[in-house]
Design goal:
The structure holds two protein chains of two kinds.
Chain A (H helix, E strand, L loop, with lengths): L1 E10 L2 E11 L4 E6 L5 H8 L7 E6 L2 E2 L5 H5 L3 E4 L11 H8 L8 H11 L1 H4 L11 H13 L5 E5 L7 H16 L3 E6 L2 H7 L2 E6 L2 E7 H6 L1 H6 L4
Parallel strand pairs in A: 3-8, 3-9, 6-7, 7-8
Antiparallel strand pairs in A: 1-2, 1-4, 4-5, 9-10
Chain B lengths: L2 H6 L1 H29 L6 H21 L8 H28 L8 H26 L4 E2 L4 H4 L1 E3 L5 E3 H23 L1 H11 L1 H6 L4 H27 L1 E2 L5 H14 L4 H25 L9 H15 L14
Antiparallel strand pairs in B: 1-4, 2-3
Helix pairs in contact in B: 2-7, 2-10, 2-11, 2-12, 3-4, 3-5, 3-10, 3-11, 4-10, 7-8, 7-10, 8-10, 11-12, 12-13
The chains are: A alpha/beta, B mainly alpha.
Chain lengths: 233, 323
């Protein structure tokens, strides 16, 4: 579904990604692990078009994404829940969700609103509330719900567990599994490697801008280096 | 002190202040909407505003030349000049953004500001050049339409001219339409989303550049409408007439809380009222020591006082940090 090959990205003189290659197959949950500054967020931002690579290729369902602006990449079925959620604080919950469906002209929007409220009942109770007044967990739910309103085939999630209490993290991860079962492919960036590997099919480990390890979730969970560096053993 | 006089002129002064305030409010919207999406002061907006007045006067003069001004129904003529003025200013605003601001989007903040000041001077002299070549004059008078100067005497001290009513009704319609667009439509929601977070908006599939153009279009149209109403109400225009009202409308936008749309409306009306009351009452209350010519000093002193105590403006919000 998505393939990234020898991707280089630089911020000015600093090379943030060096020859990153990864692939995500239809229906998978793929985890992208790594420490702060390893290049996880940079990878996602480059895939969704917010950053321009210096070289390398990205293809989504066989179509190259080079030079395509973010708002057009979205129309090809890719949704990106960015780091820090980036919900529209001054808009209501409903308006945030309407913005998620901005590119759509079809009649299924109302049904998708119901589907999103079924996944996140808390949002259904707060449709008219200004989003900036939601709790951190609710804001994360809204960020994911807003991306789902696009009806994406591929969903990029950047640190959905960030700043949330453990109970909420489990709830969010359960929902991610639900979303995947309903047919959405997921590329998940996480610092919380244990959580990520518990729901992922496969994973990659990024270290200082390069892919250091790749394998199935089980292989990565059993790898001694991964256990020491990311699973706190 | 002549209390009956002070009380007697009050309604008339209030009315004048409201009319002036609506004018400022319409212009202020252009500053505040652009600031909302780009955090940038479009100093050329004062000329975008006055271009609307010139489009209006050109149509009126052409109609008069063709002998149609007296024969066409006057509401039709008014709608025609309003729509044309709005279209002219809107097209100009969109072009200015495309040519003079967009290429500088990534530049340090002072650079587009200087570009805007340059565009402002350029447009002033361009209007002067065009009108000088075309009409051999650049101080133009709005042709009078007799109906507009009819006055209704409401009381012995208060009368309302038809043109004042026209200004009030047109301004209210514009403000209502803008409010409806921004708050009740999907594209209006997108304008607010872009104002808050451009990158996140682009991830929703919103074409940010198109929304920015649309913001200039709407702000320009409001400015153009204000230009036509300015011409109808005050009669005389020249290429430099936009500058001072533009500056005052900018102040009104800051007073209301820059970037805040209802704030621009409130700020405009407050400034209009301050100015009208200062113009009429300063001289009466000080026994002639301060004449009406001190109205701006008074109005701006009050503004400075308000901003000292409310630096975000009357309706400006304290921007919440992201959780």
């Amino acid at each position: 579904m998505l393939s990234v090959d020898v991707l280089d990205v630089a911020y000015g003189q600093i090379r943030a990604l060096k020859g990153v290659a990864l692939a995500v197959g239809r229906g998978e949950i793929v985890a992208l692990l790594g420490n702060n500054g390893a290049g996880k967020t940079t990878t996602l931002k480059t895939i969704s078009g917010l950053l321009r690579p210096t070289s390398g290729t990205i293809t989504l369902e066989g179509q190259p994404l080079a030079g395509v602006p973010p708002h057009e990449i979205v129309m090809r079925g890719l949704a990106h829940v960015p780091e820090g959620r980036r919900i529209f604080n001054r808009l209501t919950v409903r308006e945030n969700l309407v913005m998620g469906a901005y590119t759509r002209r079809d009649a299924g929007i109302a049904a998708d609103l119901d589907r999103v409220f079924a996944l996140f009942p808390r949002l259904g109770e707060r449709v008219a509330q200004v989003a900036g007044t939601l709790s951190g967990g609710e804001q994360q739910m809204l960020a994911i719900a807003r991306a789902l309103m696009l009806g994406p085939r591929l969903l990029l999630l950047d640190e959905p567990s960030m700043g949330l209490a453990p109970v909420l993290v489990e709830q969010i991860f359960d929902t991610i599994v639900d979303i995947n079962r309903q047919g959405t492919t997921i590329l998940l960036v996480e610092q919380n490697a244990a959580m990520a590997l518990s729901i992922a099919h496969r994973g990659y480990v990024l270290e200082t801008g390069s892919i250091a390890l790749a394998g199935t979730a089980a292989e990565l969970s059993d790898n001694a280096d991964v256990r020491r560096a990311y699973l706190g053993e | 002190m002549d209390y009956p006089l002070l009380v007697g002129i009050f309604p008339q002064v209030l009315l004048d202040g409201i009319i002036l305030g609506f004018m400022y409010a319409l212009i202020a919207l252009g500053y505040t909407m652009v600031y909302g999406v780009l955090e940038f002061i479009n100093f050329a907006h004062s000329e975008i505003f006055i271009v609307g007045a010139f489009v209006g006067v050109e149509i009126l003069l052409s109609l008069k030349g063709a002998g149609l001004l007296e024969t066409l129904p006057w509401p039709l003529v008014l709608v025609l000049i309003l729509v044309a003025g709005m279209a002219g200013s809107a097209a100009l605003a969109v072009s200015v953004e495309r040519i003079a601001y967009r290429p500088l989007r990534a530049a340090p903040r002072l650079i587009p500001l200087i570009s805007a000041i340059g565009v402002s001077f350029f447009l002033q002299d361009l209007i002067r050049l065009v009108e000088s070549v075309w009409r051999n004059a650049f101080n133009l008078v709005y042709p009078t339409m007799d109906v507009l100067n009819e006055r209704f005497e409401l009381t012995s001290t208060l009368d309302v001219s038809v043109k004042s009513l026209v200004v009030i009704v047109a301004a209210l319609l514009m403000l209502w339409a803008l409010h409806a667009i921004v708050n009740r439509t999907k594209v209006g929601t997108a304008i607010r989303a872009v104002a808050e977070d451009q990158a996140a908006a682009s991830l929703m599939g919103i074409n940010v550049n198109r929304i920015i153009s649309l913001t200039f279009l709407i702000g320009g149209a409001m400015g153009g409408a204000a230009g036509v109403l300015f011409g109808v109400q005050y009669g005389l225009i020249n290429p430099y007439s936009g500058f001072i009202p533009g500056l005052k409308a900018f102040t009104a936008a800051v007073l209301g809380g820059i970037g805040n749309i209802p704030g621009a409306m409130v700020g405009g009306i407050v400034l209009g009222l301050l100015e009208a009351f200062a113009a009429s009452y300063l001289s009466l209350l000080t026994g002639g020591a301060f004449g009406a010519e001190y109205k701006d000093i008074f109005a701006f002193s009050v503004l400075i006082l308000i901003l000292i105590f409310r630096p975000k403006g009357l309706l400006g919000e304290v921007v919440r940090e992201r959780a």
